[in-house]
Amino acid sequence: MKITKTTLPGVLVLTPTMYRDNRGAFWETWNQNQMAEAGLPAVWVQDNFSLSNRNVIRGIHYQVIQPQGKLVRVTHGAVLDVAVDLRRGSSTFGKHVAVELTGENGQMLWIPEGFGHAFLALTDVVGFAYKVTDYYSPAGERTIAWNDPDIAIPWPVSAADAILSDKDRKGATLREAEVFA
Q1: Which architecture characterizes domain 2-169 according to CATH?
Q2: 1-56 pLDDT per residue, tens
Q3: Is 19 annotated in the active site?
Q4: What is the DSSP string of 30-57?
Q5: Is 143 helix (H, G, I), strand (E, B) or coil?
Q6: Is 135 a catalytic site residue?
Q7: Exposed/middle/buried for 148, CB within 10 Å: 0-12, 13-18, 19+?
């Protein structure tokens, strides 16, 4: 497993070693020893999975009560996956990193507590799997607008073509959002 630091402290890209032959491919999506060496949590409380159609944007989501670290990956299709630093005291507050995750490249993104998370489905159907370090807390869930100009994520989809939930459509701006100290 290759571990690559990003421009946001603590956010990591994990690239597994892949074994390919005429039958297809094999790789490990979780190896406790390798993940511990990279500083990732040993305990996960929940695995989640979503299916999304092309141009669906999910996020920017985070929890201020029961904050979650997330290890995200794509099982099939492709996404533009984004982490946003929401730690007000951080030198990278409001900055983001974007990585294309695909079912073919097998890459994963580790997003620690204190960061928001979003993704855009780039293909007709995307299978998206992720582990979290704490349980879902409806009372603690917050959403920042996907197109907040202060964050300025260069989404490769127009506002007219983006498909959003009501919750994501009503996201707060970074300036007005409750974030982490």
Answers
A1: Sandwich (2.60)
A2: 899 999 999 999 999 999 999 999 999 888 888 888 888 887 899 999 999 999 99
A3: no
A4: --HHHHHHTT--S---EEEEEEEETTBE
A5: strand
A6: no
A7: buried
